[in-house]
Each structure stands twice: as C-alpha cells, then as structure tokens.
Amino acid sequence: MAVSAPSDGVTVTRGGDHLTLYTWGTGAAQHWFCKVCGIYTHHRRRSRPDEYGVNAGCLEGVNPRELDPVPWSDGVNHPSDRNR
Fold it and tell me: Cα separations (Å) of 53 from 16, 23, 28, 45?
C-alpha cells in the first residue's frame, strides 16, 4: 500500500545505503528499492513530481493491517494516461 507525502516530507532514517533507484521510460518517475531484499520503499510520482508515494510498510510505527481497506490498481493503467 502506497501512501502520499510531499517530497520534502520524506526522510530515510535507516538503510539508505541499501537503496537503489530504478526509472522507467521517460525517467520522470523514480522508484527506490532495497538492493538486499528487493522491497519497494518509495517513489517520486510521474503524475505529481512534488509528491512521493511511500510503502506504508516502511513507515516506522505504522502497521498496514490496521489501515482502512486498501484500494487496488491494476498495475497497467497509470492515472496520468487516462483521457481527461
């Protein structure tokens, strides 16, 4: 589950030396993963570059199982690609 945060509101407090960056296509979206275990930690959004999506499971003090029902994305259709 990804939660949103302003880009200046995210601080990596531990494990930053284990993160690796991956970009797709245009390079606008930047996705960080742990190069040890492969978990997705956070990404700079293509649709809102001033915002990060953050894996809620990586937030200190947050138990994702206690959050409201999780909305699902099909992983193919990006919100920015929809006809407006």
Answer: 16, 14, 14, 7
Residues recorded for the chain: 84
Q: Are 40 and 29 in contact (CB under 8 A)?
A: no
Q: Is 72 helix (H, G, I), strand (E, B) or coil?
A: coil
Residue 2 phi, psi dihedral angles, 5° rounding:
-100, 135
User: Environment class of residue 5 by beta-carbon count within 10 Å: exposed (0-12), middle (13-18) or buried (19+)?
Assistant: middle
pTM of the predicted model, to two decimals?
0.72
Tens digit of each residue's pLDDT, the chain (84 residues): 788 999 898 899 999 999 999 998 888 889 999 999 999 999 998 888 899 999 988 998 888 778 777 666 677 777 677 665
